[in-house]
Each structure stands twice: as structure tokens, then as C-alpha cells.
Write a structure and sequence with these properties.
Number of strands: 0
Bound molecules: protoporphyrin IX containing FE
Shape: globular
Helix content: over 70%
Number of helices: 11
Strand content: under 5%
Order of helices and strands: HHHHHHHHHHH
Distance between the termini: 63 Å
Largest sheet: none
Radius of gyration: 21 Å
Length: 353
Amino acid sequence: MNGQLIPTPDTIPVAWGWFQFLLLLTFPIHLLFMNAMMGSAGIAAFQHFKGGEANRKLAHFLAVFLPLLIAFTVNFGVAPLLFAQVLYGQFIYTSSILMGVFWILIIPILILAYFGAYLYDFRFEKLGKTGGWIISIVFVLFIIIAYFFTNNMLMMTLPDTFSAYFRHMNGTLLVSGHATFLPRYFHMIVGAIAVGGLYTALIGRLKAKSDPKLAAYAEAVGMKVFNSFTLISIVFGIWFLISQPKPVMMLFMSKNVLATAIFIPALILVPLMLVFSFRKKVIATTVVLTVLVFLMTFMRAFVRAGYLAKYFNLGRLKMVPEYSPMILFFVSLAGGLVVLVWMIRKAWQALQA
Ligand code: HEM
């Protein structure tokens, strides 16, 4: 029955490894921007309500970058969405339709959050205390969007739930009751706040010359948030791992050599990162964290493959060779990257001025 509810996959124009490579390259970038966006919104809200000159100054400083972070999060979300659809279209389209009402709701919620972020930035002084409520609402909207994303990314790996459509034909199916949902969602949210802290410490450095007091305060607050939320995130990470069905968990405990080879360095990097972060070594922490986020998304790809193993593996995708679109893609990607670097340099110069 459930097997019949999975549509036949489309053919792919080049070997699946190319799409997997691009998915695993772009998704961690989406996550890093999403974390900076969500985390800094939460920190700005907290600092705003705490009040006082230093806290409000820090909140305002974070507000200036927030619309930019939303743009980067969304744009770096489009790429993995396209690659995930090419590789897992028969699952992700189905789950997106089953939760269609919530899935489509992401767009108006995101527009509202974007509007709130601009309002908070442009009217910071005028808004006074109301600004604190606005940025809090923006933060909550991000958390709601993440809730829908976690639902879809989990549901797509659970074709057994697809038949629930016959009991919920109105596009409101969710999988929040699944044993792995809460640890997965909390791990994402708490991790995002932690990374938001590190990002705060990092961008505070932009003010090292013009406002050293703000730079030092941003680093102190940011690293405190990073340390505490990372410790909580580790607890959720362990819960997430042990909540997995045994065959999936065993992939990381030697059943799959590559999965285990990724899991072990990730395990070693966590305490190393904590040593750096507790010593307030912001750059070293950022480097290790970036590597860790990449490794964890690779692990997540194994989890997805493990869940779907009963029905599908990527090797079963039929390839009908057609190389020119991929070549065109790489050429436009290179052009886009050049423009992006130019834009960042211009923005950087403007910020320093
Ligand atoms: C701006 C608000 C957004 C937030 C807070 C957010 C948050 C998240 C979170 C928490 C996940 C992980 C879900 C999980 O696996 O448990 C995720 C995954 C993902 N997001 Fe976003 N996201 C946002 C916007 C977007 C947008 C606008 C797109 C696409 C246009 C996008 C594309 C993706 C994709 C494709 C994945 C999954 C990739 C994969 O499973 O390989 N995101 N997002």
C-alpha cells in the first residue's frame, strides 16, 4: 500500500553523485546563515528587553544585519531545495503536498518576518520598547518556519505515514508526534541560537576600531550564548542520535564505514570546539564549528538514506545523459560567485565607512 503511494522518480541528466555533492555543499551554508539569522534575532530581542545603553546598542547593531541574513538564508535555501527535489522528488513532493497548507504558509510567514526585520532596523530609535516586541515576533516566526521545515524533512523520509492522507485529505498532515521529531527540532533551534551567539561575537569585530566597547560587549555576550547553548545542544544531539531506530544508529557505529568515518571526527571536534570557545578564541571556534556543521549535515544525509533504505536508494535513479544544463549551471554558478564576492566587498566597505 505505502509503496504504491510513492510516485515513480524522474530520470536524472547526470550521475546522482553530482547532485548529492551540490546538496551537501549548499545545505550547510543555508544552515549557517539560518542559524546566524535566527540566533541573532533571539539575542537582539533578549538584549532589547534587558535594556540599558550597551544592550540596546548591541540589539541595534544586530538589527542592521538581519535583513541581509534573511536574504542569504532564503537564497541558500533555494539551491538545496532544488537538489533535494532532483534526488528525492518522489518523497519530498509527496510530503510537501500532504502538509501543503503549512508548507505554503511558510511564504506569508517569511514575508511578515522580513517586514518585521526591516521595521526593527529602520525604525529602531522611534519604536522604543515596541521594537522589542517586534523582534520577538520575528524570532517566533522563524521558529515556526523551522517547525514546518523539520516536519517536511522528517515526513519525506517516512513513506509509511503517507497513507494517513486518507484520514487527513486537507493538507494539514504533520509528523511532530514521531519519536525523533522533538530532539531533531530542538537540536536545530538550540544549535541555531548557539551559532547566533558566535556570529554576534564575530561581527562585533567589525566595530573593533570605531567602537571597541561595543565590539568587546558583543564578544562577551556572544560567546556566553554560544557556550551555554552549545552545551544544551549537545544534550539534544545525543537524544536525537539515540532516538533513531537501531539500524540507522548502527550506521554510525561501524555498520557503514563512511558514516562511521564522519561520525568519529565529528565527536572529536565537539570538545575541541568547546576548548576554543571557553577560551574565547572566536576565529578558531568558527573554523571548527563550520567543519562540524558540514560533518553533521553529511551524517543527516546518512540518516535520510537509512530511513528510506526500505523503499529506495540513490543508485536506483535512472540516468538519461544530458550534460549541457549542468555545464551551464556551473558556468552561471562561477559568474554568480564573482558577483557575490564583489557585492560583499562593496557592502563591507560601506559598513566600515
Ligand atoms: C528563513 C527562514 C528559514 C528557516 C528558519 C529555515 C530553517 C530550516 C531548518 C531548521 C531546516 C532543517 C530541518 C530538519 O531537517 O530538521 C531547514 C532545512 C531546509 N531548508 Fe530552510 N529555513 C528557512 C528558509 C528556507 C527557504 C526559503 C528555503 C528554500 C527556498 C529553505 C530550504 C531548505 C531546505 C531545502 C532544507 C532541507 C535540505 C535537506 O534536507 O537536504 N529554507 N531549514
